Amino acid sequence: MLSRRRLLVLGGLTGGAALAPFVQSELAPSGTASTHHPHVHDHAGRVPAVRSGPAVTPFSVRMPVPATRVPSVQTGDTDIYRLSVQQATAQLLPGVNTPVLTYGGAFCGPTIRARRNRRTLITFDNKLGHDTNVHLHGGRVAAAHDGYPTDVIAPGAGRAYLYPNAQPGATLWYHDHAHHLEAENVYRGLHGFYLIDDEAERRLGLPSGGYDVPIMLRDALLDDAGNLIFDPADPYNRPTLLANGKAQPYFEVAARKYRFRLLNSSTHRVFELTLDGAQMTQIATDVGLLPAPVPVDRLVLSSGERADIVVDFAKVPLGGHVTVNDVAGPVLRFDVVRQAADRSRVPALLRPLAPAPVAVRDRKLVLSLDPVNIRALINDQVFDPARVDMQVKRGTTEIWEVTNTDTNVGGSGFGVPHNFHTHLSHFLLLDRDGKAPPPGEGGWKDTVLIQPGETVRLQVDIGSHLGRYVYHCHMLEHSALGMMGQMEIVN
Ligand code: C2O
Ligand code: CU
Ligand code: CU
């Protein structure tokens, strides 16, 4: 495999070099594909990393929790914020200053805590030398406030985004979405948490306050001087694993239950997480609570996906450790250092899954790469802001069958996973290749992983706004190369 892939990459095909952005050599999740899928998990095919970056001693720094921003003004129905989009430095590695792009100076932007049905108005001032814009991932917002790719904030300009928060409690996040720049802008640090608090959820008694901790997981490639290297041609070579912006940190916890809100903000990597030393209970997926808690021993999160889990450290002795491991190595270690009272609980029922209205039509979407022309396609087309790919009716549901046909990209013998993300609309995953999804995917979602050769069927709840919204592969190197389409929502 190695020599075959190298041959492809080094010469031969006109588009040979273009295979690099597409071919996954070592980090594919191994358990999510059905067995008949050609498998991408091929260690023998790994091309050795050219640049590996500075060595990291795991668990030598503390994981911070991104600071929650306090609104600068509060009116009767709106919380008002102002954030600049600016360059800054961050210590991703201990003692090394890395130039990054930030919201408000922080590599993991400030956490915005919104309340259901209370509006948020955030003005973003673009202090960068290039375009940016802001998208609230998972948010149901008007088209003009959604961060449409060509609807950007020019350097020096500012822009106010209004978020109604008329949706159930959830772990959302905000990030850049500027046309063709989204992968690099997000990679360099334009990402932050946006949490919607919900009275109905609060009454459940889940761990809250200091025991409700958002954790942003992602990867990076750093050079020896500590600079972030963005190489869209080799997104699999990003060996440094970050939790809340620190490489493989530790986090001190009490011997009790915690809620962790996990987000994969990588632009490409699929995390496949296990917990060593305690049980994980998944309580929420992308856009809110699951119907009931699900014990899980493995959590697969592709770019943009979230999972809220509860971990109970009560049975871990003081001084004990619980490690979060990815298939690529340890990500984070919880160090149990003290006792604490725990009145929180995980009720057997979290929220009823209301039946979605009957779907009004079916559609088929096919995701594929075109390595020869270095393009990424949906239904054989690259994104064109001037073309509407589908018209959909507001307030309806539809069945979308989404297939990843990339089982053998450019004849390389390698398959490539994709995922699929819808703006505005949320969906239920009906099946994967005709089989019921695991219970952890049994709630409302906005992003779903699709393995090479796999077909997912989604029941898409279009939503109540009008206008144009995009959907795309959230492996942002792919969306930046065109794997994106748009729907127009009409009356
Ligand atoms: Cu987080 Cu268009 O996406
Ligand atoms: Cu989104
Ligand atoms: Cu993709």
Number of strands: 31
Strand order of the largest sheet: 12-11-10-14-19-16-17
- Assess the beta-strand content as a share of residues: 35-45%
CATH homologous superfamily of the largest domain, by name?
Cupredoxins -  blue copper proteins
The figure for the number of domains is 3
By CATH, the topology of the largest domain is Immunoglobulin-like
Output the structural class: mainly beta
Q: Give the distinct bound molecules.
A: CU-O-CU linkage, copper (II) ion
The rounded distance between the terminal residues' Cα atoms is 53 Å
Overall mean confidence score, pLDDT: 90
What would you report as the Rg, rounded to the nearest angstrom? Answer: 21 Å
* Largest sheet report: 7 strands, mixed
**Residues in helix, %:** under 10%
Q: What is the helix tally?
A: 4
CATH architecture title of the largest domain: Sandwich
Layout of helices and strands:
Elements: H1 2-10, E1 73-74, E2 78-93, E3 96-103, E4 109-115, E5 119-126, E6 135-137, E7 158-163, E8 170-175, H2 182-187, E9 191-197, H3 199-202, E10 212-220, E11 240-243, E12 246-247, E13 250-254, E14 257-264, E15 271-276, E16 280-285, E17 288-296, E18 299-301, E19 306-312, E20 321-326, E21 329-338, E22 362-370, E23 375-378, E24 390-393, E25 397-404, E26 418-422, E27 426-432, E28 447-450, E29 455-461, E30 467-472, H4 476-480, E31 484-490
The structure holds CU-O-CU linkage and copper (II) ion (2 copies).
Subunit structure: Monomer.
Organism: Nonomuraea gerenzanensis
InterPro entries: Cu-oxidase-like_N, Cu-oxidase_2nd, Cu-oxidase_C, Cu-oxidase_fam, Cu_oxidase_Cu_BS, Cupredoxin, TAT_signal
